[in-house]
Amino acid sequence: MSRKVVHWFRATSFGTPVGPWRETMREARIDLIRQGLGSYDDDGWFFITVPGGIDRRSAWMDFELVALLHQARCATQQTRPMTVKVSPSPKMIS
Questions:
Q1: Are 18 and 37 in contact (CB under 8 A)?
Q2: Which distant-in-sequence residues (6+ apart) come within 8 Å of 32 by Cβ?
Q3: pLDDT at 5 over 70
Q4: Would you put residue 13 in left (φ > 0), alpha (ψ -120 to 50) or beta?
Q5: Of the four, 10, 16, 51, 65, which is 20 to 30 A from 28 by CA?
Q6: What would the pLDDT profile of 39-73 be if each residue is shown by its tens digit?
């Protein structure tokens, strides 16, 4: 069975979550901006204001489960389905 690495991100302040786990870094950055803990400069670089931060978690999941979760998300948010590429020989995450 094929497996894929999935990532989740969440905004924090002093190490305490200030937003839910998100599927993209962009969504976690929006949470930081809403909390006044992050901003973009004129060149498009994102800066996190201390005491803000972003937690990141990664895990291997069966490709079929990833596809089902994504379809459910698309159905509830009415977004476009993503294209997922699976490596034939994935490397372990440390």
A1: yes
A2: 11, 18, 19, 38, 48, 52, 54
A3: yes
A4: beta
A5: 65
A6: 999 999 999 999 999 999 998 888 888 788 778 87
Beta-sheet pairing, 46-48 with 16-17: unpaired
Selection from 29, 23, 19, 20 nearest residue 5 by Cα: 23
* pLDDT given for residue 61 in this prediction: 83
For residue 72, the SS3 value is helix
Per the CB < 8 A criterion, the answer to whether 35 and 11 are in contact is yes
Residue in the structure block whose two tokens are 């670089």: 45
Rounded CA separation 27/18 (Å) = 12
Q: Which residue has the tokens 């690495």?
A: 5
3 state DSSP class of 2: coil
**Mean pLDDT of all residues belonging to the chain:** 81
Maximum alpha-carbon separation in the chain:
45
